[in-house]
Design a protein that fits this description.
mainly alpha; Tetracycline Repressor, domain 2; 4 helices
């Protein structure tokens, strides 16, 4: 899994747990032990992160559906 995916999945987890407004980039970076500078290499804004988190959620759902078919 790429670092970008790890960031998006951590954000997704935090969004679902705390809501979007209460989820901070600082907290995501802290939990992943990365700097904000590293975060901003992959995402230019929290909105961009939110879109990627939604895409990661779609991937998770698709993977689960594929596993259930087999």
């Amino acid at each position: 899994m790429t670092l970008k995916s790890k960031i998006a999945r951590k954000a997704l987890s935090q969004f679902l747990k705390n809501g979007i407004a209460k989820t901070s980039v600082d907290k995501i970076c802290e939990e992943l032990s990365i700097s904000k500078k590293t975060f901003y290499v992959y995402f230019h804004s929290k909105d961009e992160l939110m879109n990627e988190a939604i895409n990661e959620y779609k991937k998770i759902i698709c993977d689960l559906l594929k596993k259930n078919r087999n």
